[in-house]
TrEMBL record:
Record flagged with keyword Amino-acid biosynthesis: no
Cofactor list: pyridoxal 5'-phosphate
Annotated GO MF terms: aromatic-L-amino-acid decarboxylase activity; pyridoxal phosphate binding
GO biological process per UniProt: carboxylic acid metabolic process
Family membership: Belongs to the group II decarboxylase family.
Keywords: Decarboxylase, Lyase, Pyridoxal phosphate
One Pfam family named in its UniProt record: Pyridoxal_deC
Modified residues (N6-(pyridoxal phosphate)lysine): 294
Protein name: Glutamate/tyrosine decarboxylase-like PLP-dependent enzyme
Family annotation (InterPro entries): Aromatic_deC, PyrdxlP-dep_de-COase, PyrdxlP-dep_Trfase, PyrdxlP-dep_Trfase_major, PyrdxlP-dep_Trfase_small
Species this chain originates from: Allocatelliglobosispora scoriae
Length: 479
């Protein structure tokens, strides 16, 4: 192994990357390899000795190729998967090149300072209280865990109980109320924190918003107990958002902590058009979890945890080892999150924020919402097609009717859409029904992509109807 290998491997990697990106529009929007094929090309016994690095890189590129899902394709609408801005991708390559560990300031002053800058910018575009503390974590699930760790510590500390030194056994019982559509990431975090027993799922309306009367009744019943409430800013199915300002006021009147899961929906706060309509008062919550790798379109990983009370944040993360040189005048990334060694995941976030600026960020958010409405409009009124949600954000829930009944037919249409490789959408379950869910969150998706995908989806629907009628007729003839 020689340092000169960088000279050949990095240009080769750049060539491979460009070839992949240039070919993206022509790829089927799904993986086409079986696991066995992937294993055959990439597996086998670990070699006894070294192999030529250039050949290894080539083998990786060829071996994974058909097992990759082209999520950057303009017609990929699966799960909640953002694309990647070119500048963020380039910054991510450099992040790997610089290979900074960012435990404390003196191991990477650049990381510590860029984290401070991005924290200020995020607080600014989300309109959060100036003193809000920010941690850059792997993903929103980690952000939920961190925020709820702080919430747990804080509500118990207010009752004279220090969870860091006294643990959970014998602690005052914390009451936990969550939006009835709360994402599994929040539930998992609560469970990991020992708060999984007795989570109360609040009744929601058909846009996934907590019903005020249900909240009032639940809060009345809590009394003086320590309280954590988890609201939702962007339901994965409907895109629905709680009435967050009111929610914050009610939870605070009851002495509780309000955590908001805004994995993607938080970014509505960065749009001057959407903010007053959808997230008015969002700044009155106590903690917020979001992702840059979703709507800011940075590469993975880019979770962000934000906490209004920075003293509470620090108090919940007892620290650590004497060997760490932590001068008080500097930011030390390790103080704000659970990880000790980690990559400088903030550089791509800085590049995205710096290059887009306020209006560029708002344009992406507004553009995706426009695309979502356009998709819904293309499908609305077509025979056997129903849009189930009010498309206020970037999610569209569709249900199809056909020979096998709505559930079965919707599943078959989604499978046909996925199999054709002309677009990709997830099959989901919502209120006990099978639905097809479209997520519009990629900066690169154009109106033409939306139109092409809608045409393809309708063609799948008709093809499945025709096949189903044929089957029904055949079955009738056979009887
Ligand atoms: C509402 C919501 N919360 C939390 C998450 C979890 O985010 P991550 O996968 O980045 O951990 C998601 C993922 O889609 C989500 O939609």
């Amino acid at each position: 192994m020689t340092k000169l290998e960088f000279e050949t491997l990095l240009p080769a990697a750049a060539d491979h990357a460009l070839a992949y990106l240039r070919g993206l529009p022509d790829r089927p929007v799904r993986a086409t390899a079986t696991d066995a094929e992937l294993r055959q090309f990439l597996g086998g016994r670990l070699p006894d000795g070294p192999s030529d690095p250039e050949q290894v890189l080539q083998q990786l590129v060829t071996g994974v190729d058909r097992g990759l899902v082209p999520t950057g394709h303009g017609e990929y609408f699966g799960y909640v998967v953002g694309g990647t801005l070119p500048v963020a991708m380039a910054a991510d390559w450099l992040t790997a090149t610089w290979d900074q560990n960012c435990i404390v300031h003196d191991i990477s002053p650049a990381t510590a300072v860029v984290e401070e800058i991005c924290a200020e910018w995020l607080i600014d575009i989300f309109g959060l209280p100036r003193a809000t503390s920010v941690a850059f974590v792997p993903a929103c699930t980690h952000a939920e865990l961190l925020c709820l760790t702080v919430a747990r510590h804080h509500v118990l500390a207010a009752r004279g109980w220090d969870v860091a030194t006294q643990g959970m056994q014998g602690a005052p019982e914390i009451r936990v109320l969550v939006n009835g559509a709360t994402h599994a990431a929040v539930i998992r975090s609560l469970q990991v924190l020992g708060l999984g027993g007795g989570i109360h799922h609040l009744e929601i309306d058909d846009q996934s918003r907590i019903v005020p009367a249900a909240l009032r009744a639940a809060l009345d019943e809590v009394g003086d107990a320590p309280l954590i409430v988890c609201g939702l800013v962007g339901d994965i199915n409907t895109g629905g958002i709680d009435v967050v300002g009111d929610l914050a006021d009610r939870v605070h009147d009851a002495g509780g902590w309000l955590h908001l899961d805004g994995a993607f929906g938080m970014w509505a706060a960065a749009s001057p058009t959407l903010r007053p309509q959808l997230v008015d008062g969002i700044e009155r919550a106590d903690s917020w979890a979001t992702d840059a790798h979703k709507w800011l379109n940075t590469p993975y990983d880019g979770g962000v945890a934000m906490i209004a009370d920075r003293d509470a944040h620090l108090a919940a993360l007892p620290l650590l080892a004497e060997y760490l040189n932590m001068q008080p005048e500097h930011r030390h990334p390790v103080e704000w999150g659970m990880e000790v060694s980690r990559r400088s995941r903030v550089f791509p976030i800085w590049a995205a924020l710096r290059s887009l600026g306020r209006s560029g960020i708002a344009d992406i958010i507004d553009g995706c919402c426009r695309n979502a409405r356009r998709f819904a409009d293309r499908l609305t009124g077509q025979p056997g097609v129903e849009i189930l949600n009010e498309v206020t954000l970037n999610q569209v829930l569709v249900r199809f009717d056909g020979p096998g009944g709505r559930d079965e037919h919707t599943r078959l249409v989604a499978e046909e859409f996925q199999a054709r490789g002309e677009g990709w959408a997830a099959i989901s379950r919502w209120n006990g029904r099978i639905v097809l869910r479209l997520c519009l969150i990629n900066w690169a998706t154009t109106a033409a992509d939306v139109d092409a995908a809608a045409t393809s989806l309708l063609a799948c629907h008709r093809a499945v109807v025709t096949a189903g009628n044929g089957t029904a007729a055949d079955a009738g003839a056979a009887r």
